């Protein structure tokens, strides 16, 4: 795993990102990249998707399992927001005893919602919709 970091650093340098730092957490399979560049702030979601694909290709070539790639803590903050959304929706579903539909999300974000709602035995989740419109419905089991 120690030979991955220099390869990623070289790629980032070739992309003209100079102020970079890479942290690899093999135990939790996370790869965090920090780039101190103003242009990155405006394009994090697109860059994150591209970096995720590119750096996991490198990991695959090195026979290393895929890692979750984060860029400037964007994914970590997004996970926090999604978890807060799940908690608020769970509270609303408990109070109203009705179904709560959440906005469309990607598979990873939907998984975070499903995992959070499992802590509520009176609630269940279901993914509905297709493609970009796929979203979660939280249901109260006693309604």
Question: Any overview of this molecule?
Answer:
The chain has 143 residues and is an alpha+beta fold. The protein has two domains: 4-72; 76-140, Ribosomal Protein S8, Chain: A, domain 1. The chain is elongated, with a radius of gyration of 18 Å. Helices cover 48% and strands 21% of the residues. The protein has a three-stranded mixed sheet. It has a three-stranded antiparallel sheet with strand order 4-6-5. Strand 1 and strand 2 form a beta hairpin. The model has no long low-confidence stretch (mean pLDDT 92).
Number of strands: 6
Q: Kindly provide the radius of gyration, computed on alpha-carbon positions and rounded to a whole number of angstroms.
A: 18 Å
* SS strand fraction: 15-25%
Q: What is the count of structural domains? A: 2
**Mean pLDDT, all residues:** 92
């Amino acid at each position: 795993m120690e030979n991955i970091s220099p390869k990623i650093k070289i790629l980032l340098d070739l992309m003209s990102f100079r102020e970079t730092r890479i942290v690899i957490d093999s135990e939790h399979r996370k790869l965090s990249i920090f780039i101190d560049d103003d242009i990155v702030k405006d394009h994090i979601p697109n860059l994150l998707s591209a970096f995720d694909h590119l750096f996991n290709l490198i990991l695959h070539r090195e026979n290393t399992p895929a890692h979750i790639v984060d860029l400037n803590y964007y994914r970590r903050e997004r996970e926090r927001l999604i978890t807060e959304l799940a908690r608020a929706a769970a509270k609303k579903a408990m109070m109203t005893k009705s179904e709560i539909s959440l906005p469309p999300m990607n598979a990873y974000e939907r998984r975070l919602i499903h995992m959070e709602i499992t802590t509520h035995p009176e609630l269940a989740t279901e993914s509905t919709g297709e493609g970009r419109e796929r979203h979660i419905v939280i249901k109260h089991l006693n309604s």
